[in-house]
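Example record

Each entry pairs one chain with its bound ligand, 5'-O-[(L-methionyl)-sulphamoyl]adenosine.
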Amino acid sequence: MAKKKFYVTTPIYYVNDNPHLGSAYTTFIADTLARYHRLKEDDVFFLTGLDENSQKTATAAKTEVREDIQRYADMMAVRWEKTWERFGITFNGFVRTTDPQHITFVKEFIEKVHKKGDIYKGSYEGYYCEGCEAFYKEDDLVEKKCPLHKKEAKWLKEENYFFKLSKYQDKLLKHIEDHPEFILPETRRNEIVNFIKTGLKDISISRPNKTWGIEFPIDESQVVYIWFDALTNYLSAIDREKYWPADVHIVGKDIQRFHCTMWPAMLWSAGYKLPKTVFSHGFITVNGIKMSKSLDNVVKPIELSKTYGTDAIRYYLLKEIPFGSDGDFSKNKLKSAINNELANDLGNLVSRVLAMVERYYQGTVPDGSFDKALLPDVKKIDAHMENIAPDKALESVWEYIRLVNKYVNDMQPWELNKTDQAKLKDVVYSLVESLRFIQILIAPFLPETAEKMKEQLKIESFIWSDIKPGAMKGKKISKGENLFTKIEA
Ligand code: MSP
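Structure tokens for the complex follow.
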């Protein structure tokens, strides 16, 4: 049977920023989905990358020389690559919008849109926020400042090329109505629908600039507007025959509008299908304020991982921040998740059970019979993952871990050791199988921990459908170090 394909993307990050916990969050979600679908044996393509052609890159590079700006982007790109490497991000493609392949694709894409009659020349006058790289209506500004970057928006007056976005308004509303899964979560869908109903305006898709950006194919005195360039990365960097349309674009709520209005219209215009789902998550905040470079409140993931480890950070972000809503980052909550959920619930359970195998059976898993009370509710976890609710899926995994802990406490194997050897065998065997289930269930979320458990349980490779009893009988396990160390207050 042909494999089901699963194509998941993150937004491409502005290369001039340093990775922070907010950008890492989007990437962790996409990585978790990719890992889960690989375990389900789907043909996965996970794309991430960097948005480099923005004016911000040139400004940050502090030079007008194209080669020097590129050198600056190359230097910054390494920071992103190192962060993703540290967190074991399993992307299949890493696109940089200065890649020649991307540039060629963008030009061809614009030619197609032009041929369709959707591009015209006009003049633009209005507000622009360089932080968002977006045009603003006066009503959207707060005291003339961008609501997100809190910086004054610039008044621009330019000759530009325009894309006929307004032409696609009705088609878009109909598509959203017919495909409710196109915009998730539902609250965001309503926001977008209301926004579209206020009237989509044609947008300027080129800017006068000669130093930096992709040359506008119809007029070389202009460069392609950054969003028109950036969004096409989802197509330029993949085997389109095989993977398009995307199954899910994971985006933050600040950029959902681009993905749910401009992007579908662009795709229709150039003759492509639309992605199945655009899922937008909320912001990681610090004392209620969005974490971002411009607000100077960022937490660097690599720094944090030196103290707390990478899996603990993934766990905290994936589980403690309700997916779709904003969530405040707090070190105290991170510590409490490490001490209670990771070290106690999971780490102690693993070391207790493996210690029993060593103590009672000299390290060889006994040949008992499996207690069905310890079967996890995999269907429930699958349903959450299919609905792109990784926080709920992880909560269900933890419900299972708690159930196994309760089983140990209820069965009291240390008492059975004195009174009932036959029962002890069944209990310990069932517990070891449960550890194996847990090892598989946590793998999409906590890859490093899953790897350590794999070594302790002497498992070679595994897939999702291995979550059924039978594999552990007679195995010689090797109890390693504790999976997590508690953090002192
Ligand atoms: N380059 C554009 C995206 C183009 S995609 C075709 C961009 N880049 S960004 O670097 O500013 O943001 C990238 C992603 O990081 C966005 O999804 C954004 O929502 C997310 N985050 C940035 N700060 C964030 C938080 N504090 N919290 C959660 N995610 C946030 O926009």
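Residues 331-361 form the longest helix (31 residues).
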